[in-house]
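EI: anyone free to look at a 683-residue chain?
SC: sure, send it
EI:
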Amino acid sequence: MDKVYRHQEVEEKWYNFWEKAGYFTPRPPGAGSGQSPSKKPFCIIMPPPNANGPLHIGHAMFITIQDILIRYHRMLGDSALWLPGADHAGILTQVVFEKELAKQGKTRYDLGREEFYRQCYAFSQKNKQYMYSQLKRLGASCDWTREKFTLDPEIEKIVVETFKKLYNDGLIYKGERIINWCPRCQTALSDLEVEYQERKDSLYYMKYGPFVLATTRPETKFGDTAVAVNPKDKRYKNFIGKEFIYQSLIGPRKMRVVADETVDPEFGTGVVKVTPAHDPNDFEISKRHGLPIIKVIDPSGKLNKNAGRFAGLKVAEAREKVVEELSKRGDMVKIDKNYSHSVGVCYRCETTIEPMVSPQWFVKTKPLARTAIEAVKSGKIKIIPKRFEKIYFNWMKNIKDWCISRQIWWGYKIPIEGEEDTLDTWFSSGQWPYATLMANSKEDFNYFYPTTVMETGYEILFFWVARMIMLGLYKTGKVPFKTVYLHGLVRDAFGQKMSKSKGNVINPLDVSDKYGADAVRFSLIFGTTPGKDLNLAEDKIRGMRNFTNKIWNIGRFILLGLEGKNVPFYKPDMKGLNQEDRKILNDFNHLIKAVGNNLDSFRLSQAAESIYEFLWHNFADKYIESSKKRITEGDLVVLSVLRHIYLHCLKLLHPFMPFITEELWSKFETIKNDPLIISPWPK
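SC: here you go
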């Protein structure tokens, strides 16, 4: 046995061995499967990473957590299926691919829709294969024979069936409502696809007939159809319900004064302009008061003909021009240049969102949300950590209809004749648990559905998890999974979000090459808490590499002690056990129970920490040190205890550190039957 553990020589070798031997591929029990009908299913459907680029350290986190659970249940004897896949990722992939085209001096319009789709598909497939190689590099024991892509024909068939069922049941409709529009991506976005950034902008106080009102958007005034005040605001009670005429920049306009409780009397002067076509709150006010809707911004983010001589100007240019002319007329009372507020941006390209009334396709979500709320309330679905249940309930109770149409070329076309829009990518990924299993076989669906665990980041609880619950219950009548485990974001050592611009990104493959995949995996689990962000520094990964070296050295020490000796296998009643032996054996039995209980309860960090503490301190620092004299004196009992505990520790550690444990297990030829990956869990 080499003096030094060289992960570079071990990891690819063992992964290829496991995959080739078929250990990742469980079969539903039945005729010809060779599997006992009593075997329990344990199934995780992988959250499909986007097929448009390499994996990042956040992906390494979910890969590690899910692989730990799968390897643990495989060793328990369950029929453990981890089904991998990739997401076509709609807008994001189109944005990424368009950037690639831009490097060639081309746009999608140069290719045309069909050729663009063909090239984008080839681009995503190439990225998908590279991404899968990264998953394997990190030790993901997925069943690659069942791999799925969200645009696979068999998945498409199921997605279209769901659309038609929702449509026939009156749960999908086309309507003209206010939506989030990205002028850069030229598409509608759902509320969840808008991120909010805190910005300092100007707040403009301008004359408006008999009023002075404050707004951040003077350029939309050409679409105003009323001004609103709070009904309890005594300053304006005599104006409510009346009309006034004022001279706008493009001629006289008639305006109503309406009272609405949503108006904040503390904002500005307590009077707000109502632009129903370009503000979601104003749109709701217009519905309550029967106000007309006038669009003044077009899909490219420019003012349209309703803005008169300002037509054709981009929003920022129009704002500057309008402010300049109002100032010249004396209608600009004051400008607060330090106004802080939240501004919505596209979650993919960070372009400022333009809310606008537009004809789009929507899913009526309230009927779907009711059953999804009940599924969690009744305990059919458990969310870990539990505090996220309250957040889930609050969001689901206030859910709005879901805009599912996108004006992009990449993705599923809406299955309505003459319709050119595509489906929101979350509509297909929201069907992922049942669609993947149905697409494989009826046997797979019947045996593995509902799946056991859905493990993902807390930031997509509403993006994705809630939609899977709603659509899963609607389509199958069953919950899509029994447990939702939410992990946090991986941040840098100082708690900052990792980004290329900050230079603080940790590439999981780079550090795996440097320290070994096992060290990376263990650093992502050690000291983590479900639902909380993890601060990760390279020093921590280096420290876990030191732990792999410690494990290696322990194994080398025991093997050297066993060399040339006929050491009996440990039995609880074997003679010659002293007090020290009994104590370490007792501690080890407690460790087995603690690790099992922690893994069953999804306390992965506590399980990892207890193994680390026992191996490094109890076993190596104390018991091994005290055993050295006995070994030199020819005591075979201590060698029997050492071997017994160490090999079982390798079993406990295998889900966390699969490569080094399998390599070490293989060194103990005299007792080895099965490879460690399918060896029974210690009891």
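EI: The chain has a mean pLDDT of 93.
SC: 👍
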